[in-house]
Amino acid sequence: MNGSLQDACARLGLDAAALGRCTDLTSDTTEVTPGSCFIAVRGSRFDGHDLIGEALQCGAAAVICDRSRLPDVRTRNTPLPAGVAFCPVDDSRTVERALAAAFFGHPSRALRLTGVTGTNGKTTSSVLIAAIEGALGRRTAVVNTLGVLVDGNHRQFDRALPPPAQLQRFLRDRRDDGHAGVILECSSWALQMERTAGVAFDRVLVTRLSRDHLDVHQDMESYAMAKWKLVRQLAEGDKPGACLSLAADFPVPGSLPPGLSCLRFSLSDPTADLSAQPLELSASGSRFELLFQGRPAGRLHTNLPGAHNIENILGVLGLYPELLEAQAGGETAVLSGDLFSDIAVDGRLEPVPHPGGVFVYVDYAHTPDALEIVLKALARMHGGRIFTVFGCGGDRDREKRPMMGEIAARYSKEVYVTSDNPRSEDPQEIIAQIVAGMACGGSRVLVEPDRRAAISLALSRVGPGDVLLVAGKGHETDQVLMDRTLPFRDRTVLQEEIAKC
Fold first, then answer.
1. What does the pLDDT read at residue 80?
2. Would you say 77 and 53 are in contact if contact means Cβ atoms under 8 Å apart?
3. Which one of 3.40.1190.20, 3.40.50.1390, 3.90.190.20, 3.40.50.300 gives the CATH number of domain 350-500?
4. In the chain, helix, strand, coil percent, each to 5?
5. pLDDT at 260 over 70
6. Euclidean distance between CA atoms 191 and 205, whole angstroms
7. Is residue 331 very low, low, confident or very high in pLDDT (cuts 50, 70, 90)?
8. Average pLDDT, stretch 287-314?
9. Where are the domains of the chain?
């Protein structure tokens, strides 16, 4: 047994000998194999204590559970299997957070860990970081909203960022198979739930903050605090050269932790450490002059359209002060003009071909700020009439719905308000809340709860030179209704409906 695990068990009051004999650690019964330690955690949908019997049948050698549930666990599993160690604790979720890194040998200490948080641009930024790491010859895995990318192979976790035990096992596997680093996209919810507990980060990128997840966080201040947890964790990791790239307008709660190298970036504030002068913005991408601490640092090109993607690149470059210094001095070719010229990000201003000269896009924009950014970008790129199809998710922040309605109506010729993922809510009520914000807009508003029908109707109305944006679901492959989940991908539906035109 490694000394770190022994120390962790002593702190947590666990049977170190029993855990030292375990071959794996998990809070997911589907991952239990003979010799595993199963942590029974109460979740929002399932209570792991109700699944202990299933874990035992799969060969669990030890079970960590809440002390308050132990009588019930013993009753359900009488007689208890011989040789299985039961470890009652006050709070099994807290124990998972405190134990996982030690159990798997603190793998992040041997990896170059990059964390990305903020409201919008996280997924795109993680892809851009991977492009730089690849150019530097570093084998790097990516975990983001799109899934898990390891050596060009895609797969999915059940959650965008998994619980501590599953995440630490993943990091151990990347360390053991020779990866140099891992990039983690960290949502405010994942940080609030402390899923990154025990991860030692080398670098953190914090993008701009705008309204989102206020169904989870009490207010914008609490939302910012949840994001800032990642910065504190960066400082606590105590790795040499810890680096923070920070959006210049992020509402920093308090002061920066000491010992962090920090570069601030902004597309609109020329006094930021990193800024840019756009030279060309078009549907085929952008060209811009990079400015580092007021000095020209070269011209870059990206195939990603929209000024917001220039800002995403600025944030990513803020993680590489050593490259920026060399670039400004003309000493490196890593940040070459075409480094970002072949970037693909599923569901982010993703074009869908239309034979009739219509500019069709799918985008994940599901916040007021994101929707406005995308609509502004489309207006600047194409200048034609904009037709927008969108809805809002159920069981999420309700106050943003009329805001998004107002924004869509302000920038669009016609808006087709439809369903997103209504979940347990009535789609018509969600739509009514969106439409309530559209009274002052100059657009024509049509309501069609059926998302495919709304897309089909919009396609029947557009003509050459027009722009059609289908927003909200982006890369998602299904639609979550009250009583069922249906296969549904905006890009696929658009392709099918365009073929009928």
1. 72
2. yes
3. 3.90.190.20
4. 35, 25, 40
5. yes
6. 14
7. low
8. 94
9. 3-103, 107-328, 350-500
Spatial CB neighbours of 196, under 8 Å, sequence gap ≥ 6: 115, 161, 164, 167, 184, 186, 190, 230, 233
* C-alpha to C-alpha distance for 346 and 363, rounded to whole angstroms: 9
The pTM (predicted TM-score) of the whole model is 0.95
> What are the helix (H) ranges across 77-194?
92-103, 122-135, 164-176, 188-192
pLDDT at 78 (0 to 100): 66
The closest of 313, 135, 124, 109 to 202, measured between CA atoms, is 109
Contact 403, 397 (CB under 8 A): no
Assign domain 3-103 to its CATH architecture: 3-Layer(aba) Sandwich (3.40)
From the list 374, 466, 469, 467, the residue with the least C-alpha distance to 416 is: 469
φ, ψ at 475 (rounded to 5°): -80, -10
Model confidence at 292, pLDDT cuts 50, 70, 90, reads very high
SS3 of 340, please?
A: strand
Does residue 79 have a cis peptide bond before it, meaning omega lies within 30 degrees of 0? Answer: yes
The strand pairing partners of 42, in sequence order, are 47
- The CATH number given to 107-328 is 3.40.1190.10
